[in-house]
């Protein structure tokens, strides 16, 4: 997508629905002075060698992906690279020939640290200013984080450090307000932010991009939010309670800018 935006590569129209929500494929875009790149998955999914967005692929083929067991079988065949088995399996599902053709040409792999660093370096060259954002390293109901997610976050931060890039890790901000206040699905999916946390993340990204921030996020105008976050942060057993308390006190005292300062890292070689 990045190379398509700068005119170095053209994404085929047949693949576009699995790349973007936009119905039309733009031939160019209005350049920005800064770009935010979220890296939330280590999976690389391609169609005819071109990267596609997994969520769009899944949404377009409910006959395969709505049932967890059917989806598991599909990915097992894809990962094994057994084209005959994939074709036979797809013939058992209520799909059109066009859909079967697409699903047969899908490939999946897991990105390595070297590949990730190479991609991040390419983005830094393509765009004038880039801020990378990791996934949030939330804790499951059993008290453990998701191993694959934790590993990917570490990889992104390590690659950013080598490249001298700016990376925002929402985990630090979540620790400040508490997981229950930050995530709309704090016990299951662990992937979606609450509106208030989205506002605070936007504020933090604006600071990381050195943009002008005229005021605090509107959702944080209610002092009760900070008070609730104080108790939830304690309940979530933050690793560094002293630091968490200090940040929450800043919030309660209306010093959001000071509270948000530690949540990103500027790495230099």
What does this structure look like?
With 269 residues, the protein is of the alpha/beta class. The chain is built from 14 helices and seven strands. It has helices at 2-5, 54-60, 62-65, 68-80, 83-91, 97-104, 113-126, 147-163, 170-177, 179-182, 195-208, 223-235, 241-252, 256-260, and strands at 35-39, 43-47, 50-51, 106-110, 130-134, 166-168, 264-266. It has a four-stranded mixed β-sheet with strand order 1-5-6-7, sandwiched between helices. A three-stranded antiparallel β-sheet has the order 3-2-4. Helix 7 crosses helix 8 and helix 12 (223-235) packs antiparallel against helix 13. The chain is globular. Mean pLDDT is 77; it is low at 212-217 and 220-269.
Show unreliable segments: 212-217, 220-269
Distance between the termini: 28 Å
Structural class: alpha/beta
Strand order of the largest sheet: 1-5-6-7
The beta-strand count equals 7
The major beta sheet can be summarized as:
4 strands, mixed
Mean pLDDT: 77
Number of helices: 14
Quick recap:
This protein is α/β, with parallel strands linked by helices and 269 residues long. It has 14 helices and 7 strands.
Task: Annotate the secondary structure layout.
Blueprint: H1 2-5, E1 35-39, E2 43-47, E3 50-51, H2 54-60, H3 62-65, H4 68-80, H5 83-91, H6 97-104, E4 106-110, H7 113-126, E5 130-134, H8 147-163, E6 166-168, H9 170-177, H10 179-182, H11 195-208, H12 223-235, H13 241-252, H14 256-260, E7 264-266
Parallel strand pairs: 1-5, 5-6
Antiparallel strand pairs: 2-3, 2-4, 6-7
